[in-house]
Every structure is written in C-alpha cells, then in structure tokens.
Amino acid sequence: MTTEINRRIDQIRRGEVPEGYQKTKDGIFPVDWNTQKMKQWVALAERPVTLEDDKKYRLVTVRRGFGGVDLRGEYLGKDILVKNYFKVRQGDFLISKRQIAHGACGVVPESLDGAVVSNEYNVFIPNQGTNIEMFNLMMRLPHYTRLFYLMSDGVHIEKLLFKTQDWMRRQLAMPPIEEQRKIAAILTTQDKVIELKEKRLAQKQRQKKYLMQQLLTGKKRLPGFSEEWKIKPLKKLTEKQRKKNNGFQYRLILSNSAQHGIVSQDQEFDKEIANEERIDGYYIVIPGAFVYNPRISVTAPCGPINVNETGETGIMSPLYTVFTISSPQISQDFLKYYFQSSCWYKYVKGVANYGARHDRISISDGDFFDMPIPLPTKEEQNYIAKVLSAVDREIELLQQDIEQEKEKKKALMQLLLTGIVRVNA
Length: 425
What we know:
By secondary structure, this protein is an alpha+beta fold.
C-alpha cells in the first residue's frame, strides 16, 4: 500500500476524518459517496408462484458466511410442504428472514434464473444507480451484518423474525455507480480465484479418496511389489487400551471428530463439556493411539477412527474405543490411512446393531476387533503411506493457499468497501 493509504488508515483508526471524507454514524466514508436508506438502493420484489402438484420446481437456498445462492433441489409441487414461494430472477438479492440464518444473503446467478424460493426469504431487486453485486458485498461488512440481528424480534428460532420495514429504513453509504461496478469487478475476480482453487482442492481430495480405495485394498499395486497380501483381524495387530485416569493424572480432555480428527475438547466445542468429577474414569490416550468414535455423520457414516497426533497424552470418554498397535507387522501410517478410507465400512455395517440409537454405531468389542485388515508387506505398507502422505501435503498447501486468498479478499473488502482505497480514477 502507498504511504498516502497507510496515513489515511492511521487517521481513521485514531478517529480522525481524512481530507475528502465525512463521518457518519455508520463510519467514515468519502464525501462523494451517496448515503441513502436501504429502500432507495433496493426494492422488494414479490412474484408469488402457485405450485402445481405434478410440476417440478427448482428450490434455492442461501449459504451463510460469505453467502451465495445454491440449488437446494428439484421437487414436484405435491412434495413441497410449504406452499408460499416466489420466483427469482438472475440478479435478485436474497436475505434469509430466519433468526438462525441471519447474515445469509446472496445474489441469484444466471443458472438459477426462474427458480423459486420460500417466503422465509426476502427478494430484492436493484433500483437505478445500484450495482447489486456491490450491494451484496456491502452487506458483508460487520456493521451491516449486525443489522440482520438488530432488525429481529422474538425468541423462537423457527419464526420469521426479520423486521423488513425497519431494515429498509436504515442508511447505507455507496460510491457512484461506476465505482460500484469497478469494486464489484475486483472482488468478483478475487472470488473466482478462490473458487478455482477450491475446485482444485476438491479434485485433489477426490484423487486421494480414489487412491486410498485402490492402494489400501491391493486393487492397484505400486511398482516393484507383487507379494500376496494377508488378511489379519485387528485384534492380532492392536491392543485395546483400558487404562483409566485414576487420581486425575491427566486433565487434557480430547475429542475425536470426523472433520478435525483428535483435538482438545475446548478447541472442538469452544468450551469444556466434560464433568470434572468424572474424568478420573476417562481412558488415557497416549500419542499415537487410535480412537474410534461410534457417532455417525454424513462424512463418517460408521464413525471416525483417528490417531492422536497432538503430541500430548490426554483423556477420552469411555464411550470411545482406544487402541494401540501391538504387532510389528503393521505400519502406524498404513493403518491410519486405512481408517481414513471407506474400506472398513462394509464390515462394520454388517455386524453393527442400529437398534439402540440412530446416531451411533452399536458394535461389541469382539466384533470391532475381529475387523479384517488387508496386510501387504511392511515395505509396501510404508510406500503406500508415503504416496498418500505426499497427496496430504498437496492438500494442506492448497488449503493454506485458499485461506490466504480469503484473507486477501477480506483485506480488499475492508479497503474498497469503506472507500479507504478508491478505484474511480
């Protein structure tokens, strides 16, 4: 950034108003930015649709966070429970009216032109002098995001609480239309960069999934390996850990989730949820120990099995199954990747009891440790793990790159959407 921009930022941080800027209750903006009520920038669009039973309709929804309008699905009119729907057009701006989803807003893309949205959303169209992409971006600024909550009333999450008319009377400062277009173009380009890299990440994750399925079952062999694989039950390769935290020896409470693996409980839930009086009955989990969480999810239909790679000894609820490798025949990393794959799902589903709780796998220790594990030579195991580890590293670098691009976008938004940096020249 230039010296002038840095000086301007420092002035605003000190509460001073730089030359050519004005101070409003919503912040400091350039003097040539137009401050108007929301209703002067956008107008409500109501295009009610009478759903016909045997006609198919594309239903749309809006993501939270940075938003975006997505296809929820395609349904027959008779299968849609809520009957109050509106037609949406390309360039419409949608805001969720539900308290639980406030902040969810986005612009309808060309691909969803003519789809329908429920009356749990407000549908707006731009007035003259409004670039709707720029308006959508302005709604991402913290001040305007808070309005989604301030303009709500009531305590029941499922009710439609967004007070539309109050929101429409709030003020919004926007640059001249040509500057709006340029800002929107810059940030839309950055969005496309992020989207492209996220597609590359998804492709790499699919590649890893395919490689695991092929390499960990012997369907695909690495060059130089031809020895026949053996099948060994898990109990011949590992040992269940039953040592408990008697005397409160350890206090680091761990959690095992499909999304984050094994992490400290306060990191997973933003608070500790274990009862301090009961942690003496928790299992001790040493570094390198495997943990099975029988709780199922979309990404872990049989529950996740992960390795404690925190580098610390912690404790876990007795609801989890903790085990460690006891045989030199198997590589730690090979077994880790085997449990990251779906190769073991068929066995667990075949022996599990689903009668007790629908959200958990119910499997006895005997059945769990009878699980068959395909076993190549130790050397081949290590090579397979090495190949998958290299893919993991590529995925990690892509994820870091995406986060950097998102941070770059946040910085650009803060500079461009407040007028600290001008693009009207």
